[in-house]
Amino acid sequence: MIKLENVSKNYKGMSLPALRNANIDIGKGEFVFLVGPSGSGKSTFIRLLNKEEEPSDGRIFVAGKDIGQLNSWKVPYLRRNIGCIFQDFKLLEKKTVSENVAFALEVIGRPKSVISKQVPAILELVGLADKVASFPLQLSGGEQQRVSIARAFVNRPLILLADEPTGNLDPATSVGIMRLLDRINRTGTTVVMATHDRGIVDTMRRRVVELEQGAIVRDQAQGVYE
Amino acid sequence: MALKVTYMLRETGTNLVRRISLTIAAILTISISLALFGSSLLARDGVANATQRWEGGIEFVIWMIPDADADQDAAIRRAIDESPAVASFTYVNQDEAFVEFSEMFADSPELIESVEASDLPPSYRVVPTDPDADVVAELGRQFDNRPGVRNVVFASEAIKDIQLQANRISSGLLWVSIALLVASALLILNTIVVAINARRKEIEVMKLVGASNWFIRLPFMLEGLVHGLVGSGFAVVAMWGVKRWVIDGFSQSQNLKLLEGLRVTTAELINRSLWVLGIGVIVGILGSAFAVSTKLDV
């Protein structure tokens, strides 16, 4: 599903590369944790997959396609197959829970009939059926992250990228979010999650890819944080 | 598709209303600049119509009597042809005179209907080699009182002055309006930049979930288009007012005989209105397109 071949990323003005000669193959339906200290290249890894950044070197394949060869007008179609969730949720404060999720379908031109069916269904899945009319600021952090997950998953993407999704949440809420991501993963969606949360990684025992100064230093099946 | 159109219209409307003061400023600036621009074009048209017979250096017109015979006409033509003081001349026959009359009085069909080509005198419009007033007067007098000639009419200094001053004024207006149009385009550009900045988070989410580039850009482009279209719409209304109350007022004035011929036909007004609408749309689209291409990183 995801393949990196000798991928490096250098940012202007930085002496060290953010990612260095990375090679990795992630299969369909896998759940992969990206671990490592701050600045080790986890976020860069995720941004490269979503084509928010271009690699300085190497090739990246998503669903069998070399995304470096994609025309800029095709990038949105790539992104429709990749859901993203973030530490800061990126919700639109002036829209309700339901509108935030519907927005993701509306802007890719899904018909109203589809939107009116899929939005309540996904909100039911993430456990927010009773909060459809609430605004993000009326929700707890965990609930806001659930809305963000609903928005990322409503279009049933092949891949879900999560950049520190539990970074702003307390441990109990984090467990709830991880259960949800696990459930999504069981539907066949590939999940790649960057995290600092040792407890979560050690409990879930999934594939762990460790980055250090931009290099992949460990790739372990059913791994632990370190 | 229907949803996309609804979405685009809703977003464009929201953008326009959310920053209403900027919207009003952009529309007012473009209205004023285009109203000036359109009025200067109308003034040019009016003066061109009023002084039509005197364009291209024509200094005097020999009006023949409508039923002058062929010999009389040939004699005059020969005399003009052979005169070394004549640089060039144009013969306007009765049919051409009728066309000219019809254009001049296009807004008064009852007047056109009351006249036939045979009622109008043919004329020779003469461009002398030397435009000096005394030389022109002397040359013109040679044709007065000849058989077949009704009279000789000279381009008066007043007409030349009107032509010159009116052209200066309309050129001045044109330049001022062009400068204002540039200001309008910049104002639209900045309005769109403000709109983009205000919706940065929304745009980020749209990009993340895979909205197409045009889907993101179009509401902002439409916003610029609305500024241009509404602004030019007001300008067109102002231009119709200028024709109705200023230009028509001059042409009907009993005290300003010199400006009697100043008139703009409805066809000319429609033509200039379409120009103004077109320019408004172009300025709106250019301003927003520049903002979108430089500030919207999609």
What does this protein look like?
The complex is a heterodimer of chains A (226) and B (298). By secondary structure, chain A is of the alpha/beta class. Chain A contains seven helices and ten strands. In chain A, helix 6 links the parallel strand 7 (159-163) and strand 8 (190-194). In chain A, helix 3 runs parallel beside helix 5 and helix 4 (112-125) crosses helix 5. Chain A is globular and about 45 Å long. Chain B is α+β, with helices and mostly antiparallel strands and 298 residues long. Chain B starts with a helix and ends with a helix. The chains are: A alpha/beta (226), B alpha+beta (298). The interface between A and B is medium-sized, with 24 and 18 residues.
What topology, given as strand order, has the largest sheet of chain B?
A: 2-3-1-4
Instruction: Name the poorly predicted regions of chain A.
Output: none
Greatest interface and its participating residue counts: A-B, 24 and 18 residues
- Provide the helix percentage of chain A: 25-40%
| Helix/strand structural class of chain A | alpha/beta
Shape of chain A: globular
Instruction: Output the helix-strand order of chain B.
Output: HHEHEHHEHEHHHH
- Strand fraction of chain A: 15-25%
- Largest sheet composition of chain A: 6 strands, mixed
Q: What is the strand content of chain B?
A: 5-15%
Provide the succession of SSEs of chain A. Answer: EEEHEEHEHHHEHEHEE
Oligomeric state of the chains in view: heterodimer
Q: Spans of chain B of 5+ residues with little confidence (pLDDT < 50)?
A: none
Number of strands of chain A: 10
The N- and C-terminal alpha carbons of chain A lie at a distance of 26 Å
